[in-house]
Specification:
1% strand; mainly alpha
Length: 330
């Protein structure tokens, strides 16, 4: 489904945009391969950063090999679920299957979500100040009577992320007992009543995990915070490398491109399509056309081929083997 949706949107962009012709596809070979090589290195560094963070989060309960497999499956889950949902529920299942109890698994996944969201919540206003108002592209197709709908979607997404982060932080750090109360209230409904005993158990485990997280040393928080900054910076610098493969850009333009990715990702977080398929390709064209010109279409394909589709392929390879190893042992 994600592949069909993504390729479908790419086909529609190709069909309806008069500026895109069959010759545009050949432009993909005009890239400076040194910049493409840098983009690949940055992408690999990002994945290593992910593995380092999950291993640090779990207090080295996962080996490096298991950490890499967990990240591949987690990225695969994110690629096949709508961005508005994400792969967090699957991530909890993966970690529990790796031998980490549910309470800790949920706490670790909640903590990664909080860290990732905090990056957006903090970075977005910072880059808006640094780029002096040029962070939003001028897109006529987005103009509505209530103003620029692109900015409207950004501030809507930003507000939802900030509220979501606040609630999660409150449940994990401040009042885990209140989170347990919420689970018990939900499972008091008839449709969820059969899970009430489990909800009570999970609530207890969350409180235990919360107490363990609260007792962490400052070095623990510093490591995972720096790892989060590194992960997202590497994700965005990969695209900066791809853009520089097709056109010469200044340092200030690098900054704007980096900043626009933060805004674009915040808007994409409310995408209803699997892995933001189609949505990502569409917004890429709106945000970076002024820098790439005729190379915009092929750059968007190259970007998704590097940052999205590999995880679908890796997931298809690793998921069946992982399921066999965890649930079909002799």
């Amino acid at each position: 489904m994600p592949i069909i949706v993504g390729l479908g949107i790419v086909f529609l962009l190709f069909y309806f945009d008069e500026n895109i012709t069959a010759n545009n596809l050949k432009l993909i070979f005009d890239a400076k391969w040194s910049s493409v090589f840098v983009a690949i290195l940055v992408l690999l560094a990002r994945d290593i950063g992910y593995a380092y963070r999950i291993r640090t989060l779990t207090n080295q309960e996962l080996s490096w090999t298991r950490s890499i497999i967990v990240i591949i499956l987690w990225e695969f889950a994110s690629a096949v679920t709508p961005s508005v949902v994400g792969g967090t529920a699957v991530a909890v299942f993966i970690l529990t299957s790796e031998g980490i109890n549910f309470g800790k698994s949920l706490a670790y996944v909640m903590l990664t979500a909080i860290l990732d969201n905090l990056f957006f919540v903090v970075a977005a206003p910072v880059v808006m100040l640094l780029t002096d108002g040029v962070i939003f592209p001028k897109v006529a197709t987005f103009d509505l009577q209530i103003g620029s709908s692109l900015q409207f979607f950004f501030f809507l997404s930003y507000a939802l992320i900030a509220i979501y982060t606040l609630v999660m932080s409150y449940g994990l750090f401040a009042k885990p007992r209140a989170f347990k109360w919420f689970l018990l209230k939900i499972t008091a409904l008839r449709v969820f009543r059969k899970w009430r005993i489990k909800a009570n158990q999970y609530g207890d485990e969350i409180m235990i995990a919360s107490s363990e997280i609260k007792g962490k040393m400052a070095s623990y928080w510093l490591k995972i915070s720096l790892a989060t900054i590194f992960i997202w910076s590497a994700r965005y610098l990969m695209l900066n490398s791809l853009v520089s493969a097709y056109t010469e850009i200044t340092v200030s333009e690098h900054m704007v491109i980096f900043s626009r990715q933060i805004i674009m990702w915040i808007v994409m977080l409310i995408s209803p399509t699997p892995g933001s398929s189609g949505t990502a390709e569409f917004f890429f064209n709106q945000f970076f056309n002024e820098y790439l010109g005729s190379y915009t279409f092929v750059s968007s394909i190259f970007w998704r081929l590097m940052s999205y589709y590999p995880y679908l392929l890796l997931g298809a390879i690793f998921l069946p083997r992982w399921i066999r190893s965890k649930f079909f042992k002799k």
